[in-house]
């Protein structure tokens, strides 16, 4: 009887150990899957911060706050520069759209005669600099917004 109890206890411990190992593997796999494949290094983020300060902050704000009343059209009929922080809508868009907006300009992406003060930066910024700016902007978002934006950026 004592021998059966010891064997049963050993089997239970082994089961718990294997269950814990399987759980750890699954959690690790989930973490690897949910980390953005474009997770940026500190160097890239710093480069993006500098490019943002030089090229974007004059309209979108030094703290990514955008222009006041960014949802209300200006007298020209165009919208003010939106914020790029969590209070804006940048994080609602997938990476490819954000990249194209910076590279080609908002009007080129929206089409249909839409007018915007946001120019394209293809002649001024390299693709790597555009990606760095986007990495910097994303690095400032809370986890909820980053996760949402990573999800909408996944191919379907």
UniProtKB/TrEMBL annotation:
PANTHER family in alphabetical order: BLL4482 PROTEIN, BLL4482 PROTEIN-RELATED
UniProt domain Cytochrome c: residue ranges: 43-141
Superkingdom of the source species: Bacteria
Pfam family, one: Cytochrom_C
This protein's name: Cytochrome C oxidase, cbb3-type, subunit III
PROSITE patterns: CYTC
GO terms of molecular function: electron transfer activity; heme binding; iron ion binding
Keyword Iron: yes
The protein's required cofactors: heme c
Entry keyword set: Electron transport, Heme, Iron, Metal-binding, Respiratory chain, Transport
The organism of origin for this protein: Paracoccus thiocyanatus
Protein transport recorded as keyword: no
